[in-house]
Amino acid sequence: MSSEPLYRYITGQELAELIKSGKEPLKDYVVVDVRGHDFSGGNIVSCLQSPSEKFEEDVDELVGKTKDVPRVIFHCSMSQQRGPKAALVHATTDISTAQPEQSQNRQEILVLRGGFAEFQSAFKDDPELVEKWQKEVWGSA
After folding, report:
1. pLDDT (0 to 100) of residue 100
2. Domain boundary assignment for the chain
3. Which CATH code, of 3.40.1010.20, 3.40.30.10, 3.40.250.10, 3.40.50.150, is assigned to 8-128?
4. What is the pTM for the complete model shown?
5. What digits encode the pLDDT tens for the residues 45-100?
6. 79: alpha, beta or left? (left if phi > 0; alpha if psi -120 to 50)
7. What spatial distance separates the first Cα and last Cα of the chain, rounded to whole Å?
8. Which residues are paired to 130 by β-bridges?
């Protein structure tokens, strides 16, 4: 068994650079937002929503949908509980269902440090990064 961590953190700046790099969402990377009722008020452009309340139930479908995507980035509002847990569940599900020849090409599983709260605070005015942002939800953040 490898001693490598199953996921690592990515900063908002690193994610912004990835999104703006010309790489294709859902092909070169995918952002998975695990917020549920707190999803309204804005989100990262081209994210997939997979609410944490149903994540374990739906993880096999997500693993299948993202199996060829080299980078999978998870987040919730602050990425303290739901985002990291989803990343761990996804990573362990992916490992348990991987074929031996796939072990060399394991996905890079990432968690957005600071979650959407920090990301939207820095990038809410950039339509390439954040969509559907609502001041009423986030205040003057």
Report:
1. 46
2. 8-128
3. 3.40.250.10
4. 0.89
5. 999 999 999 999 999 999 999 999 999 999 999 999 999 999 999 999 866 555 54
6. left
7. 43
8. 44
